[in-house]
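// run 5 | inverse folding | seed 20
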């Protein structure tokens, strides 16, 4: 039931502001949200572009969710975790005074995941930070910026914490994508074949 609401939330499915009233959400979906900060982060495991993200990837995502829940539960009012076949998304609700604590946890998250995932060779973990917002109805904005931050790993590199991409200096990978090349670049991004990605970007810049 909680995941139903989470999916509706990140897809911005409802335009009715009353749909996001904390008392209603807590009552109907069994959350414990409180006034304060909301933030989505995305955790992207890359297991080497020559490896298949198959059942091992699903197992890894479950392990990541367990690590996140153990690390963040004590400093959040509530949290929600969701994974698809490619990454894990985390929604955190916390007091503003805990922002610095969470930032420290974000920085340590990559090392903790790697330490507990030694069975995976060539594993790299990237954490994309979504925008910090102050109400549930703004969470889709946080989600979109977390997704953009994960895409930015192709430019900035994997194995780091990336905040939402800025538009000064570095290339924002999303800005290079048009409908005709989305499928090709998307495949390269997911495979993390860096040479192919770099060649593709160079061609885009010269076209």
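// decoded
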């Amino acid at each position: 039931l909680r995941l139903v609401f989470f999916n509706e939330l990140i897809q911005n499915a409802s335009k009715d502001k009353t749909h996001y009233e904390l008392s209603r959400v807590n009552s109907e979906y069994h959350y414990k949200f409180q006034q304060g900060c909301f933030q989505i982060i995305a955790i992207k495991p890359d297991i080497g572009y020559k490896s298949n993200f198959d059942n091992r990837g699903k197992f890894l995502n479950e392990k990541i969710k367990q690590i996140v829940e153990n690390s963040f539960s004590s400093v959040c009012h509530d949290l929600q975790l969701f994974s698809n076949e490619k990454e894990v998304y985390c929604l955190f609700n916390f007091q503003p005074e805990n922002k610095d604590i969470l930032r420290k946890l974000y920085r340590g998250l990559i090392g903790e995941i790697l330490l507990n995932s030694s069975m995976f060779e060539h594993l790299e973990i990237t954490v994309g930070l979504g925008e910090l917002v102050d109400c549930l109805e703004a969470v889709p904005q946080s989600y979109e910026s977390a997704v953009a931050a994960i895409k930015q790993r192709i430019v900035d590199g994997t194995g780091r914490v990336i905040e939402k991409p800025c538009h000064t200096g570095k290339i924002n990978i999303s800005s290079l994508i048009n409908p005709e090349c989305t499928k090709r670049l998307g495949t390269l991004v997911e495979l993390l074949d860096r040479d192919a990605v770099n060649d593709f970007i160079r061609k885009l810049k010269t076209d």
